[in-house]
Amino acid sequence: MKKMFATLGTACRWLWKVFSTGVFLLSNLIFLTFVLLLFFLLYQPRVVVPEGAALVIAPEGDLVEEKTAIAPLSRLINGYAGLAIPKETLLQDILDAINAAADDRRIKILVLSLANLEYSGLDQLQAIGRTIESFKKSGKKVIAIDDDYNQGQYYLASFADEVLLNPMGGVHLRGFGVFRLYLKELIDKLAINFHVFKVGTFKSAVEPLTRSSMSDEDREANQLWLANLWSLFCADIARNRQIDQGAVNDFINNMPEHLRQAEGSTGKMALAARLVDGLKTRPQVRDYLINLVGEGEEKDTFRQIHFADYLTTVPTSFTDTDDNKDRIGLIVAQGDIVFGEKDMPRQISADHLGKLIRQAREDDTVKGLVLRIDSGGGSAFASEQIRQELLLLQKEGKTLVVSMGALAASGAYWIAAGADRIFASPFTLTGSIGIFGVMPTFEQALNKVGIASDGTGTTKMAGAENPTLPLAPELEQSIQLSVEEGYGRFIHIVAEGRKMEPDRVKQVAEGRVWDGANALDLGLIDELGSLDDAIAAAAELAKLADYSPVYIREISSPGQQMLQKIGVLSLSVLKRPQFNLPGNTNLLRDVVRQFNFLALARDPGNIYAHCLLPRAVFAQ
Fold first, then answer.
1. Model pTM greater than 0.90?
2. What is the DSSP string of 14-63?
3. The domain that contains 155 carries what CATH number?
């Protein structure tokens, strides 16, 4: 017995020793990590802007108005480990860098390298283009350099003084179009029953589930705004390049003949059409830029600074921390509108956005709010939750101005309609005032493989939402009635917010999408203008002469703020590429974008105010 107790005591002592040693090592490891992070924060290498340098605007990935939220430490570790970080570039970062460089004597020229720019809204590209035009007033030259240009990249490049192209590259202008995958035959073969409920002749969000081709109504509506946007696009290119607007369409429609005359060279064809100013290989471009700004610290590079590094040396917009100044709050709402908390990146969570709106309402220094929207809508219930929060803000006497991005349609317009003022870009797509519901059932598909579902309940509606059973007629009628009521509510919200007669709203509703110029003519928006115009209008409505526009963001703890700062600073010292390689079109990504909302949608009543337009299809 004594021997057993002695053995047990020895084991316990060893266990305690292992445990205490582990705790000691873990606590020291945590302390060491904290010291290293603090050291990194305090002794971060300072970015130096070379005298007479080129500021390189080289966006990567999608152009966004708010970056996907990632834990700062994860972003830091992934950056240094070479792991994937979502490729996104903040639009405001580009605008801030170009604006600061205009008056910076250290910056001699601006270089656009756009090969890694992927999805972007035409309104965003136009905003950068207008900022480039302001930059050129300083007398500094703007040069676009790349191996190849898709049409979104070329549109932005056309604002440069000089556009250079690799001799083996081309300018790939194609025109705008909306092309969807239609799944009716596949759904029929799979024996899935998609029960669709909608109001609005032009409400086409569910057509891919119920048809094998685009409806005449959808084709008519799409052709109208596509033609208007294409006309604006071509007009800007023609003005920038000082060519006839019709030459752009001729370049596309008669491409075989133009290519024949250029002996099959897409580069020579672009040069002959005056879309570019010169054909230069990468070494020739490098030598050309070295002659303009001198050689950089690294051999065979021109003197340059990447815009992300440059931003660490200049003030950034909407970040003023002066609590003694009146403020105009800015909230970015980007993505699908979802009920509850967000599950995926690029979603507008009703709960999260509601918190931000309340934060603005309860902050006495915030006198007005600008809501920047880039969304095709989503859950009708979530849209109404957000609208109610905005109404409370207005009841507090604070002004509300909406600034629309590339897309502010359906549920996004539901949110926007009651604003004191609405601004949109000519390239904005808005409206889509309509409602739909969709509910799949799989009873036939299961029967085909020998599976049957059966049971009993206490009422006609018991098991009505069971997807393995046929949809109960009572539920089917109830959903359709709810959809019709939701459409009526939508019409009323627009009529009240826009001070229009309901019958007038019905004429421009029916789920139809409108471009910015038509939306202005129809009274759906108040003015064509930029985010800066919307902020100025909010200040004017709030009767503010001296104010600061600031982002309204979730309040972080001191520790989170420190980690965020470390993450931003650390990424600023990662080596920037001197040149970018052309990006590739991802077909799978386009497909996912079309059906992603249907896969992730959730609404308490299965009712949606959503416009499923793939925003970037026409920009690339």
1. no
2. HHHHHHHHHHHHHHHHHHHHHHHHHHHHHTPPPP-PPTTEEEEE---BEE
3. 3.90.226.10
Q: What is the pLDDT of residues 553-595, one digit of tens each?
A: 886 544 444 444 444 444 444 444 444 333 334 555 555 555 5
**Cα–Cα distance between 414 and 384 in angstroms, integer?**
8
CA distance 233 to 155: 8
In tens, the pLDDT along 400-427 reads 999 999 999 999 999 999 999 999 999 9
The pLDDT assigned to 578 comes to 42
Both tokens of 493, joined, read 């919200």
List the helix and strand counts (H, then E) for the chain.
23, 24
In a domain, 224, yes or no: no
Q: What pLDDT band is residue 61 in, cutting at 50, 70 and 90?
A: very high
DSSP per-residue string spanning 512-539: -EEEHHHHHHHTS-SEE--HHHHHHHHH
Residue 93 lies in domain: 53-173+275-311
Helix (H) or strand (E) holding 377: strand 377-379
390 and 290 housed in the same domain: no
Active site residues: 203, 410
Q: What is the mean pLDDT of residues 421-442?
A: 92
Helices 380-395 and 350-362, packing angle to 10 deg:
0
User: Which pair of structure tokens corresponds to residue 59?
Assistant: 């966006």
Length of the chain counted residue by residue: 620
Q: Do 379 and 506 belong together in one domain?
A: yes
Which of 581, 576, 577, 578 lies closest to 147 in space, CA to CA?
581
Cα–Cα dist 51/47, whole Å: 13
Q: Which residues pair with 435 in a beta bridge?
A: 199
C-alpha to C-alpha distance for 169 and 138, rounded to whole angstroms: 31
